[in-house]
Amino acid sequence: MPNEISRPLRIVIPPVPEETTANEWWPVSVDVEWIEAPYVDNKPDPRTLAGADVYIGTDFTAEMGAAADSLKAILIAAAGYDRVEPAAVPEGVIVANAYHHEAPIAEWVMAVAVALDHELFASERTLRNGDWSHWPSRWGSYRELCGRTFGIIGYGAIGKRVARLANAYDMKVIAAGRRPETGDEARADGVEYGSGTEAMDRVLKEADFVLVSTPLIDATRGLIGEREIGLMRNDAYLINPARGHIIDEKALYDALASKLIAGAAIDTWYEYPVGDDDQPRPSKYPFWELGNIVMTPHHSGATFGTRNRRAATVAANIDRLTKGQPLENVLNDVSTI
Question: Do the domain assignments include residue 215?
Answer without folding.
Answer: yes
